[in-house]
């Protein structure tokens, strides 16, 4: 997908594509054939690559591509069961490509929505509790100076023009 979109490939893109395929096959592994698994992996690699690109266009802060790889890949893998499931696999269900009905796809979509709602709700409660107790952000001065320096006393990115004096780490959360 990188070659098509950007004209070149990268090791980071290859790693993200492989992880996307693994994420997507996880919910589908008991329901699809090896050929279905390959198809799901290829679809997930391509779609997750596009999701990561969308993150840059929309300006989202997702340095580890968790949303583009894990959220999008997991949703894809769950929904694609409704298409690629075969009764020859251990789960013994059939998706649309193997003569099944829309029922399985509907069940997978409902399960996806339920997990999204549960995950969002629980994450919101945890984040709210953390925000009220420890705080979710460091102070702005530490953020502008560099979290790697202020929180860990290490400089991840140094330039020749900007010497950085490293001191002992201090508590970054306010």
Question: Roughly what is the average pLDDT, rounded to an integer?
Answer: 89
Number of helices: 7
Query: Percent of residues in beta strands?
Result: under 5%
Strand/helix succession: HHHHHHH
Which structural class matches the secondary elements? mainly alpha
Tell me the number of strands. Answer: 0
Q: Using the alpha-carbon principal axes, give the shape.
A: globular
Rg value: 21 Å
Largest sheet composition = none
Distance between the termini: 42 Å
As residue ranges, the low-confidence spans are none
Helix content: 55-70%
Give an account of the 3D structure.
This protein has 174 residues and is mainly alpha-helical. It has a domain at 2-104. Helices cover 62% and strands 0% of the residues. It is built from seven helices and no strands. Helix 2 (11-25) packs across helix 3. The longest helix has 32 residues, at 102-133. The model has no long low-confidence stretch (mean pLDDT 89).
Summary of the model, kept short:
With 174 residues, the chain is mainly α. It has 7 helices and no strands.
List keywords for this structure.
174 residues; mainly alpha
What secondary-structure arrangement, pairings included, does this model have?
Elements: H1 2-6, H2 11-25, H3 34-58, H4 66-84, H5 102-133, H6 140-145, H7 147-152
Helix pairs in contact: 2-3, 2-4, 3-4, 4-5
